[in-house]
Amino acid sequence: MTRSLRALVPALVPALVLVLAAHAAPAGATTVSADDGSGASGWTKGRSGTLHDGCRAYTYRYGVEVPTESWSLEVTVVDPSGEAVASDLLHAESEPATGKRRYRLCRAATRPGRFVLRARLVTTDGWTKEVVPLERTRFRLRAPRR
Which range is the signal sequence, renumbered to this chain (predicted)? Predict the structure, then answer.
């Protein structure tokens, strides 16, 4: 890459990432990119529903846009009391850049209410490591109707 092209790429990447991410993220998901112009961004989306009795699997969606082939996404589910109740770690080697994942919750260990997905995208390019905290996603799990 020529020197002038290298200077131009960092200026164009954030705009391109926002345009692509706006089309890639589902409705209700929030896309966040790095402020330094590296181009790493991602989103998560929790699914609202019912917090059933017993232990059940619940789903969330995710997506990442990264300029490298090496990334990981750390996702934590936080319950209404602020306690982390589930977590997931995704790697580029075993997961697609967008997809759906499951986590387990047990009704006896948490309560219905507003839950939060906290996520952190980590990219590596050679010796350079970048950590991008993603915007938190909120969703509600209601008590079952009796």
Answer: 1-24
In 3D, which of 109, 42, 35, 41 has the Cα closest to residue 77? 109
Q: Which pLDDT score, from 0 to 100, does residue 38 have?
A: 62
* CATH architecture under which domain 3-142 falls: Sandwich (2.60)
Question: CA dist 3 to 62, 98, 126, 132, Å?
Answer: 35, 33, 20, 27
Of the pLDDT bands very low, low, confident and very high (cuts 50, 70, 90), residue 37 is low
Three-state SS at 37:
coil
Determine which helix (DSSP H) or strand (DSSP E) holds 31, and give its type and residue range: none
DSSP state of 93: T
Residue 68: which pLDDT band, with cuts at 50, 70 and 90?
confident
- Sequence-distant contacts of 79-87: CB under 8 A, at least 24 apart: 79/110, 79/111, 79/113, 79/115, 80/110, 80/111, 80/112, 80/113, 80/114, 80/115, 81/110, 81/111, 83/110, 84/118, 85/109, 85/110
